[in-house]
Structures are given as C-alpha cells and as structure tokens.
Prior knowledge:
This protein is α/β, with parallel strands linked by helices and about 600 residues long.
Amino acid sequence: MSTAPTLSHARELLSRIYGYSAFRGLQEDVIADALSGRDVLAILPTGGGKSLCYQIPMLLREGCGLVVSPLIALMADQVDALKALGVRAERLDSSMAPETRGEALRAAQAGEMDMLYVSPEALASRLGQALSGLPLSLIAIDEAHCVSQWGHDFRPDYRTLDRLKAQFPGVPRMAVTATADLRTREDMLAQLDLSDPGVHVASFDRPNLDLAAEPKAGDRAARILSLVKARAGRSGIVYAATRDATEKLADALSRAGHPALAYHAGLDGDTRATRQRRFLLEDGLVMCATVAFGMGVDKPDVRFVIHADPPKSVEAYWQEVGRAGRDGEPAEGIALYGPADLRRALSWARESEAEPAIKQVQIGKARQLFAFLNGRQCRRQAVRAYFGEEGAEPCGACDNCLDESGAGYDASEWAKMATAAVKRTGERIGRGRLINHLRGEARDDFDESMAVQSTYGVGEALSQAGWRAVVDELLFTGYLAEKGDMLRPVIGLGDSDAVRALWKGEAEVRLKADPAARRERRSKRAAKGGLTAELSERDQALFEALRAWRLEEARTRGVPPYVIFHDRTLAAIAAERPGDMDGLRGISGVGEKKAERFGEAVLALVVDAA
Length: 610
C-alpha cells in the first residue's frame, strides 16, 4: 500500500474479505497496535476472533505474514478457510511434498504470498533457515501459552521462538492465546522477549456457556449416555483421560443410537484427520476424545462439552469447555470429578520431570481445579476471578447459581474432627480406615491399635457417605493430602497454615449440603435376596472378570474358588469398586492376609474396569 495502513483500511478489509460489519471486543485495539508496528500480547477468549487480529494486519502491511501454529490440522483448517476467501496462504510442514514447500517459499519471496503457516518445530529445522531474509509483515505466535512452563500445555519448541526477534529485526510480533493466568502472561512476555508490547486482556467471561459439575457416582458410562441422550441431535465433545475410555464411550454411545467417534493419539494420522474432518462437517456427531483433540477444533456449533474425567487445571478446563458455543449461541459445559481423579492428577505432577518449583505450581493448579469443581461459587465468576478479573458478577445460569440450597452447609466441625484424626493416627492410614476410625468401627487389629486415640469414634453420628463427602472436600481444598503410591495412598495433613486456621476457628469448610443428610444406599440386591441381581451392567462385567481371575488363581493354587473369595465378596468388590488397600480391607470377606496375598491383582482388575 502507498500509505500507512489505518483502522479505516482494516474495517474495509473486514467487510470486503471476511463479510463482517464491525470488529468485536478488543480486536480493533489489537489490530491498531499491530498496524503501527508494535509488539502485542493478546489474551482473547475462545471464539473471540484471535486469528483476525493478525490476519488483517498481515494483509495490510508490506510483506508476507508468518504464523507460528502448534498443530498441522489447525494450520490446514485456517489455510483452507483463507484460500476460500481468496487470500494467498499456504502452510509449510513435514506432510507436504518438498516441491510444494519450495513453490510457497518462492511465491513469498516474490511478494505473491500473503501468509505462511509454520510449526515451531519447522522453524527449528532447515526450513527456518530458508525463511531468513524473507520480507515479513508480521509474525504471529498462536496458542502462545505453550511457551510457558507455568501454563497448561507447555511445548519445549516454543521456548526457542525468542530468536525470531534477532532473525527478523524490526518485524513486529504478536502473541495470542485464549487462556493464561498472570504468571503465565508474564512468562510469555519474558520468553518471547516482546519489546514494549501492547498488552490486551479481554474478559474471560463466556455469557453463552451454562456450566455444571457433579461428583462421579455409580456407572460413569451410564451417566455420560444419559447426558448425551438429553442432548440428542447436537454436536458435542466428551473428554476422557485415557484412550481406552474414549473408545468404550464412543462404542456405548453408538450402540445407543448416538453417532459417535473416538479420537486419541494412538490412532494413525490419517484416521485422526478423517475423524476430525467428519466432526467438523457433520451435524449431531459426538467426539469422544483425549486432549489430543484440542487446539485444532474450530467447529462453531458445538453445543456441549462433557468432561468424563476432569482436566489438569482451570486453564485447561476453560479452554476445553470454550470449544462449545463458539458461534455465540447457548452451549453447555458439564464436568464429572472424584477424589481418585485428584489423586491421579497429583501423582502425574509429582512424577513429572519438571523442576521442583514447577511441580509445586502444577500441584497447586490441580487443587485449585478440584476446589472449583466441588465449590459453591458461581462457575463463571470463579473462573474470571482465577484469571485475575475483578468485579465479576454471578452468572445466574450455572448449577451453583441455580442451586436453591444457598450458601451451603458449615461443615467446619466435621472438618476439624477429620484433620485432628489424621494427626492423631500419625498420617499413615488411608481414606477408608480414617472414616472407620472416626466412626469407631474397628475392622481388624490395626484399627483396634488406633482406638486408644481421642479421635476414635468422635464422628460416629455421621454416616460413611457423609464422611466421604467431608473428606473429599478436604482433599479437594488442600486441608488434607493423599500421599504414597496410587494403589496404597495414605491421608496426611495438607497446608499447615490452613489447617491451623481451621482449628483456631479462623477458617471454615462449607459443603453444598448437610453431610448428615447423606445416607448409605441400601443394597437392593440384599433386599431382594439375589446376589448380583442389582449389579449394573458395568459392575456385572467386573464381577465376571473377578470370577474368571479367581478361577485361574484357584487352579494355580489347587484349591476351591471359594477359598480365594466367596461370590458375595466379589459382588461387593464389583459394586463398591475400592480404590486402595484400605477400601478393599473394608469389604466383608477380605481380611488382612487375603488383602496382602490378592489385593494388588484385585485392585488392578478394578482399575482396568474403571
């Protein structure tokens, strides 16, 4: 262009190329900075039009725009969309033929290319060297939170992008992402070495999203099926923690008449690309996915996101639920969670190869997520506060806002009992034994040895279910912490300052409902007299797996199967699904010796059937 581009030029381009009459939110402010040649950091919500913020300046400034993007699928979708608009755009990645990449580079050098999309890995290769000397208009770093080890999706190759400043001196750079807390934002600025940047942080509110969270109870697959059935005919995403879970959920939904596909990193690239393309093009399809199905999702009419298993942090949660309702129409985010999920998240953080300081941050983020999921504050208000947004009002539409029980139940006295019992018992027993101790229910000699403590039986008025609710809340909020390995976790005290404040009456613990109102579910099986009559289909499958294992064990040992465990014990294991040795010992028919001899095998079967 003969004159410096202005916002008037940007508005004209927005209308002529993209077909929109006006910019939204902070788009105009971000574009104004980029047009002036200033470095920019832009935090805009999912669906907030981040790509326009760098595409329009690239079209208006002299030279070719360079977009650094983490996923080939995401690059391909954006390039296809730009080409459909008549924009000269191409991607450069390993899946392309060398001659195709060469043609794109030659076109860019000749001034015949508007934008090139590359991955950070490609920039670190010979391709990055080939780009040197290319006349660039702007460098955009998409999903820029990946540069930060404090963030939720760190990618080491992003750490090398600071070299772009020296490689292309004088070329402005723009870092964009949807979710980043204050620590991550500061790290992004430092790692990318942005010069006197314009920083634009939009509200993290998504007014069209209705949010809910619920504790896992019973058959998870049946609950997912129920949720999807109530939303039949709508496109949605179901996130699960494991590849196997995505396959099983997709199969269960398909058999129930709901079109569904599985997506995970274990599938070959062609299969993943085909399934993602189907999801983008078809209406009413449900994708059951791990987080491998993430940043490349650009479908505007996803009506719901269900977390069958919770993510690792509030940032990851907000980015994933943000994939629903990108068109601004009403959409839903529903998360299922439980104490085993927290234990798994903490284990992943502790066993990672990250530096100790980063591990501590990851552990803190996991606890913040579960406190959020199990908390009573307005969901959207809590998320906005997490990201440092002040003055957020309750949304009036999430499950907590619609809950008529109000501020919840003050469970501080129960919490004091539980934390005192953990200290009195030496922080060396698991969840099941802790609850038995509080209720004064000794099951073996070890429990009896703890009965001398003053906390033994202090909580006999509260049911097992009530105590589970209290202990879960204390684990989620960090008053208690599970330690040890995944199969044999023990309960210890958490944040010492918080525990002391609780004991002094300077802090309180609140539950959504009075834990004393929670009653143990009476077994219908026992009422009817049939051993497995009331086992769910899922629990029946575990019961049969336990029987098959028991038969093999009995044959190996040359004893009758009932010597290993009675059917009644196996049925109880299938129904209760103990998560650790203490839980297993709490089931009738499992003594100390049998737990030692068979516990690991039984718990492994329970985990496999989860």
